[in-house]
Amino acid sequence: MIKSNRIYITWLKWPILIRMAVFVLLVITLFGTVISWIEPKEFTTVFEGIWWALVTVSSVGYGDFAPRTTAGQVLGMLLIFVGVGIFSAYFASISSATFHKQHRYSEGKVRYEGSDHMIVVGWNEKSNKLIHTILAEKRTTPIVLIDDTLKEAPLINNLHFIRGNATDKSVLERANTARASSAIITADQHKNESDADMLTVLILLALKGCNRGIYAMVEIVTDTQVINAELAGADYILNTSNMICDAIMEHRQEEKR
């Protein structure tokens, strides 16, 4: 009794599409075998019976095999009624599963299974332009975007969206951070500068915790957090405040010339 319960539980753990496919194959095999017993002259082998059952249940109807006896015709009628229900339910399940998976993918709930990809944390105009630039130069580079503000994935080819907080280990696991090659962390524009930088450092620590060898580029807004970003393991730091100062100084030097 315990063994049968385990088998039943294992069966229920299988994906619904696989279970239905197995059930369809069993029905086709059963009806094909029975028809070969009922009409051995018309169906000389079990394979011919299975072929007839498959053609009948799929509503193709080649007509190369057909029952001649009343018992065989009754079995054929039963197979048609059963087959219509089975195949309708099977294809309906496939459509439902496909729609469900696409919906989960759009919502950022589907785990990324690739490797050597780039992770971009935070969705804003800067990351948007950055992603388009990278994909324009290296079209084969897979990019995984992690963000907790977007409701649906951006319509960008070769971009996999993961919705969630990048400091959450489960979110980083869905992004397959352990197999990523590089990461770019942009400053959160919804926070003040100090809080944005502290969040950037926390995300960096979480990324390095999942993949110590990942090449991490971070955007730091304030000078005070640059040292913390270096200690957290940042491989490249983009200091926005210094960039603005450097741009102004360069413009003044050009004016003096």
From TrEMBL:
Membrane topology per the entry is: Multi-pass membrane protein
**According to its UniProt record, where is this protein located?**
Cell membrane
Q: Which GO terms describe its biological process?
A: monoatomic ion transmembrane transport
Domain RCK N-terminal, residue spans: 115-238
Record-linked InterPro entries: K_chnl_dom, NAD(P)-bd_dom_sf, RCK_N, Trk_Ktr_HKT_K-transport
Pfam families for the chain: Ion_trans_2, TrkA_N
Q: What PROSITE patterns does this protein's entry cite?
A: RCK_N
Main subcellular location: membrane
Transmembrane intervals: 16-38, 74-92
* UniProt entry keywords in alphabetical sequence: Ion channel, Ion transport, Membrane, Transmembrane, Transmembrane helix, Transport
PANTHER family recorded for this chain? Answer: POTASSIUM CHANNEL PROTEIN 2-RELATED-RELATED (PTHR43833), POTASSIUM CHANNEL PROTEIN YUGO-RELATED (PTHR43833:SF9)
- Its recorded name reads Voltage-gated potassium channel
| UniProt organism field | Bacillus capparidis
* Organism lineage: Bacteria, Bacillati, Bacillota, Bacilli, Bacillales
